[in-house]
């Protein structure tokens, strides 16, 4: 049984070092995109304090479609350019939102969410989707989160075969 362990109360940089080591172990023998993104969503949700949603959207048929996540039921399709997720996808840049009410076009899947961070998943120049984390507290995420999550995304991208992740699935 794989146990997610992070040190309660440790500085964020320590939590991210611990998480990175665990992600690396978790993905060592598996390249399936669905399995790996499901486990990374679970690992982040268990390993980081103060989250109410952690998961993935994948670019399928030209829009972002909900992937593996932990949290409340979420909106299924997000147009590129819309909301925080669509903005990160369009810009191919991490978007940090300290107060979602001040982000024009923020899509409220869970009304408890107060702050958010979204990282694009880009492999070999191709946009695959995004990693989205939400918190019920204001200003939960900062540059330490952006850097720590980017390291996790880098390991995920390197160790996973995403060929099937962006094939259009069933339409609405
Ligand atoms: N808030 C996101 C939508 C996804 S949910 O938070 C899970 C956005 O504005 O793109």
Describe the structure.
There is one protein chain. The protein is globular. Helix 1 (12-26) runs antiparallel to helix 2 and helix 1 packs parallel to helix 4 (143-159). The chain is an alpha+beta fold. The chain is built from four helices and six strands. A hairpin with a 2-residue loop joins strand 1 (53-60) and strand 2.
Furnish the topology, listing elements before pairings.
Layout (H helix, E strand, L loop, with lengths): L11 H15 L6 H15 L5 E8 L2 E9 L5 E3 L3 H9 L3 E3 L17 E9 L2 E10 L7 H17 L13
Antiparallel strand pairs: 1-2, 1-6, 2-3, 4-5, 5-6
The site of methionine sulfoxide has 15 residues, from α3 and β6.
Summary keywords:
172 residues, 6 strands, six-stranded antiparallel β-sheet, binds methionine sulfoxide, 4 helices
**Beta-strand share of residues:** 15-25%
* Principal-axes shape call: globular
Number of helices: 4
Indicate the mean pLDDT: 95
Please state the CA-atom Rg, rounded to the nearest Å: 15 Å
Q: Would you identify the regions where 5 or more consecutive residues have pLDDT less than 50?
A: none
Within the largest sheet, what's the order of strands? 3-2-1-6-5-4
Major sheet: 6 strands, antiparallel
**Strand element count:** 6
Class per helix and strand makeup: alpha+beta
Order of helices and strands: HHEEEHEEEH
Helix content: 25-40%
Please give the alpha-carbon distance between the first and last residues: 37 Å
Which hetero compounds are present in the coordinates? methionine sulfoxide
Brief overview, please?
This protein has 172 residues and is α+β, with helices and mostly antiparallel strands. The protein has four helices and six strands.
């Amino acid at each position: 049984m794989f146990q997610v362990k992070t040190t309660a109360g440790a500085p964020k940089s320590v939590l991210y070092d611990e998480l990175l080591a665990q992600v690396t172990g978790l993905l060592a023998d598996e390249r399936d995109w669905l399995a790996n993104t499901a486990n990374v969503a679970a690992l982040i949700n268990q390993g980081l304090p103060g989250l109410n949603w952690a998961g993935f959207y994948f670019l399928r048929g030209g829009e972002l479609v909900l992937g593996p996540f932990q949290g409340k039921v979420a909106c299924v399709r997000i147009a590129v350019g819309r909301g925080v997720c669509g903005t990160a996808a369009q810009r191919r840049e991490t978007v940090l939102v300290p107060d979602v009410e001040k982000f024009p076009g923020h899509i409220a899947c869970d009304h408890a969410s107060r702050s958010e961070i979204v990282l694009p998943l880009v492999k070999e120049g191709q946009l695959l989707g995004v990693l989205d984390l939400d918190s019920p507290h204001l200003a939960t995420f900062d540059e330490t989160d952006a850097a720590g999550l980017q390291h996790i995304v880098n390991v995920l991208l390197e160790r996973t075969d995403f060929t099937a992740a962006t094939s259009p699935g069933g339409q609405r």
